[in-house]
Design brief:
This protein is an alpha/beta fold. It contains 19 helices and 15 strands. The chain starts with a strand and ends in a 9-residue tail after the last helix. The structure holds pyridoxal-5'-phosphate. The site of pyridoxal-5'-phosphate (PLP) has 16 residues, from helix 11.
Length: about 475
């Protein structure tokens, strides 16, 4: 399987765009050097018979069959099966992603049974193991630098804690993540985990992380790598549960619809990928909170940036959905050069428009809806009263939006449950009057010791800290990738 950049053929970067890459290099690189996002040159195809043959198989088996074409020869069969089994052994549900029926045709796909209680574990647990495997095999060491507003940070830290081949520096805005989220990061005391609280906002953290990558000497010195949602390996691992849920509901004989609480468009893009691979997905509903740039795009064909508003579903408080570029690539006829120009114009003008034909094509597959904070609390209360299920605020946005986008009531609708309610106890308590309890594996979270460094919003200070820390670490494999 070869991968190309969404901006391939563009004039950006010395000597134009790099040649197509294999899976391991795409996984290690994260972002392409021309500024684009990697995706497979062609979508692997699963026939109706291939899909039918996965019916009744355990999650790990479905995962192997769906992902194998993407990794190609990167891992041998035994190795890849072992990595998958190990990744999902850390989940507290035997079938990894349980599907719960609310009523006859409305279902919840629970993706929060991993170590940090959000769907990001599904991809990151596997990515951490795949990265470590590849790095050890090459005798290399890599350094992850990332910024988080909450969920990504803890999921990435859990994914690589205690791995010999990787150090992780995770920046979070001091005082601006919830206590559960902060403790999930800062109580991991592994020697390769470095938490940094920045005096600033999430955007400041993201700018600092980006500045590290933009300093090429620094980037090469520490072999920086990114595991944020633009990493294609994450999209790949997320495709699996669309197949998994659809198979349970009768695919390939029955089409299935999905509603996905969305921020960076990574999760719902994986649903689009599943459809491109042959899964009968009737349509995908993009559910947003008040930060509704995606919903506005689907209504008007224009993407226009506005200010980010804080909501009860903070992991969706995003204006520029990084993965959306992968969908735009298809809308621009897979022409990397035109897309690169459009993205450059978008960054400078704050607006991007697509034509009526392209918009019509998107609307065949995607619907969108939004829900504000009052609606989110009402949805949590409603689901609890009607079905006895307590939703987290992100899932609640999906649950409410889904009700308005059942194109055909006979088609099963699956709402992706992206976080455990105990991860966002304040909103849940407001809605239901009860504070959800942390699951047993995290019950002592508030008694655990924290370790975190504080820094001002200053790139020189950050680079100095990373340099010092890495110099002090025992480095059996200081070779750059
Ligand atoms: C990250 C996150 C989302 C948004 O997912 P995207 O892939 O960025 O669209 C939704 N809900 C929760 C709980 C999350 O952590």
């Amino acid at each position: 399987m070869n991968y190309i950049s969404t901006r391939h053929g563009s004039a950006l970067g010395a000597g134009g765009s790099p040649a197509p890459l294999g899976f391991e290099d795409v996984m290690l690189a994260g972002l392409a050097r021309d500024g684009g996002l990697y995706l497979p040159a062609e979508w692997p195809q699963l026939s109706t018979a291939d899909i039918a043959a996965m019916k009744g198989k355990p999650y790990r088996e479905v995962a192997y069959r769906v992902m194998q074409p993407f990794v190609g020869g990167a891992f041998d069969e035994m190795t890849f099966r072992r990595l998958i089994a190990e990744a999902y052994a850390s989940f507290d549900a035997a079938d990894v992603a349980p599907l719960k029926s609310l009523d006859g045709n409305l279902h919840l796909l629970e993706l929060f049974h991993g170590p940090t209680l959000a769907f990001k574990d599904v991809a990151l647990q596997l990515l951490g193991l795949m990265l470590d495997h590849t790095l050890l095999q090459r005798g290399h060491h890599a350094t992850i630098v990332g910024a988080t507003s909450g969920d990504t940070g803890s999921a990435a830290i859990e994914a690589v804690r205690d791995r010999r081949s990787i150090d992780i520096f995770m920046l979070h805005p001091r005082g601006r993540v919830s206590e559960v989220q902060r403790r999930q990061m800062t109580t991991v005391l592994a020697p390769n985990v470095h938490n940094i609280a920045i005096q600033g906002t999430f955007d400041d953290c993201q700018d600092l992380a980006k500045a590290c990558f933009n300093d090429l000497a620094f980037r090469d010195r520490h072999a920086l790598t990114a595991v944020n949602s633009i990493n294609f390996a994450r999209v790949m691992a997320q495709i699996v549960y669309y197949f998994w849920a659809a198979l349970k509901l009768g695919a390939p004989d029955v089409p299935v619809a999905f509603t996905v609480p969305s921020g960076n468009f990574g999760n719902v893009y994986a649903g689009y990928a599943a459809k491109q691979m042959g899964l009968p997905v009737s349509h995908l509903v993009v559910a947003t909170n008040t930060n509704d740039i995606l919903a506005r795009f689907l209504e008007t064909g224009a993407m226009t940036i506005s200010d980010v508003v804080p909501t009860y579903s903070p992991s969706m408080d995003i204006q520029i959905s990084s993965n959306f570029e992968r969908l735009l690539f298809d809308l621009y006829g897979r022409d990397g050069r035109t897309l690169a120009d459009a993205m450059t114009a978008f960054r400078s003008t704050g607006t991007l428009k697509v034509g009526a034909n392209a918009l019509g094509g998107v609307r065949e597959v995607f619907d969108a809806g939004r829900l504000d904070d009052a609606g989110t609390l009402a949805a949590i209360a409603d689901c609890r009263k009607r079905y006895g299920e307590t939703l987290d605020p992100h899932t609640a946005v999906g649950y409410a939006v889904a009700q308005h986008h059942r194109r055909d009531p006979r088609i099963p609708m699956v709402v992706l449950a992206t976080a455990h309610p105990a991860k966002f106890p304040d909103a849940v308590q407001k809605a239901t009057g009860e504070r959800p309890a942390l699951p047993p594996r995290l019950a002592d979270l508030f008694q655990r010791t924290e370790r975190v460094d504080g820094l001002p919003n200053d790139i020189a200070a950050l680079k100095e800290l990373i340099d010092d820390r890495m110099a002090a670490r025992e480095q059996p494999m200081r070779v750059r990738i």
